[in-house]
Amino acid sequence: MPTGNGWRFLAPGENQMTVPHPPANPIASFSAELRSLAADRTIGDLAGRTGLLTETVKLLLAGEQLFSWEVTSVFLDACDATPHQWRPRWERLAREKGRRVWSRKYDPVGAFPDPDSARSIDEFVDLMQKLRVHAGELTYQTLEDRAKVEHRRLPHTTVNAVMKKRTRPQPDLVEAFVEACGLPLPERRRWRMKWMELVAQGQGDHTATINGAQAQQTVPESPSPPIPIVSSSAPLAESASTADSAPDMPPPAPKRLIRRVVLGVSGAFLLLAGIGVGRLTAAEVVETPILGGPPYSLIQDQPLSLPYKLPMSRDWHLDLRLTLGHTPEGGLQNCTYYGQMLVRIERPGASPLEYKSLLGHRNLTLPRIPIGRTDSMRIVVTFKVVGRPTPALDGPCQLTLDLNGSTVRAGE
């Protein structure tokens, strides 16, 4: 019998086991079925069959987000399933999440190309072409259209010139290209870093050589369970066992996760992915990207401290680009309208440099900040609410901070 508060009394003969439960998170349920398909295959085995990183496979099976059809199809094929039989269900999930469902020429099967196998820039571009074909022979115009949905620029004319090796792409274009082919963040970062490594080796170190060191990361702080920690040799059946109950939660930003820097107890500086030691001379101008990767978590009134180790002690300039986003728990418009970013750049033995964004602006660009002669620096960002929001904010603002596009420059 129904009651006014939505509960009902058990009918005669019913018990708690026979009363229907609310439906589970559909994405978590979908991931659970993918795990059952994988049977006793290990994470490492699945990574080898799909050509994906073990990190990507773990995220796919965690049940917290719906991956692209390209990734899903390749995973199904690796589990000896028939992708087109799963396509209608994937499309329903995608539409429920407000995702664009693209038409396809065929369902991708077999392992994705491995960017780390490239030994030269030409070989890397050949692998980009293979990735485009593998994803369904996507036209250059389709790639551009897909990139626009993710708020990226990927002109089809530029892609055409790159594929014909008439020009070399910038790292951002490589990343946008890989994303348009359906690959998630860990894979995009992998392709971008390999490209920068090849450019550094093939152009006389006009960019610093990548050494692969990365700041430690944690999973996003959210109500959902953490991504299972599974070794690449462990059986899958013993890994992500809790994903079935993961709540249905929108992603914090398109195809992105939130990252936090974990500082070591010793206080040593963390090496940032993309910064390495190259052959630097006084006549060279070196532009070293700061790979923002996933956005950092930025909570109101809690300073976010980002320490960086530079390749060597010399004069540096910093081009800093900061963009605010939001987490599922915290809004963006109401917070940024009444708040601003306070930026402090610290260098050993020098006075700190301080900047702030305009009130109500979610972007801050600071070109050519003179860092001076140093081999390390620390960027501290704090978000402050300086007005009185109406309606009042429900708790502190929980935002994200994106550093993509920031670079450190050296040279004369």
| Helix-strand string | HHHHHHHHHHEEEHEEEEE
Tell me the fraction of residues in β-strands, as a range. Answer: 15-25%
Total tally of structural domains = 2
Largest sheet: 8 strands, antiparallel
| Mean pLDDT rating | 74
- Segments where pLDDT lies below 50 for 5+ residues? 1-9, 16-20, 203-235, 237-286
Summing up helix and strand content along with how strands pair, one would put the structural category as alpha+beta
Number of helix segments?
Answer: 11
Question: Which percent bin holds the helix content?
Answer: 25-40%
Number of strands: 8
**Gross geometry:** globular
Detailed description of the structure:
This protein has 412 residues and is of the alpha+beta class. The chain folds into 2 domains: 26-202, no CATH class; 258-411, Sandwich (Jelly Rolls), CATH 2.60.120. The protein is 29% helix and 19% strand. Strands 1, 2, 3, 4, 5, 6, 7 and 8 form an 8-stranded antiparallel beta sheet that branches. A hairpin with a 6-residue loop joins β4 (339-346) and β5 (353-356). It starts with 25 loop residues before the first helix and ends with a strand. The model is unreliable at 1-9, 16-20, 203-235 and 237-286 (pLDDT under 50). Residues 229-247 have a biased composition (Low complexity). Residues 213-253 are annotated as: Disordered.
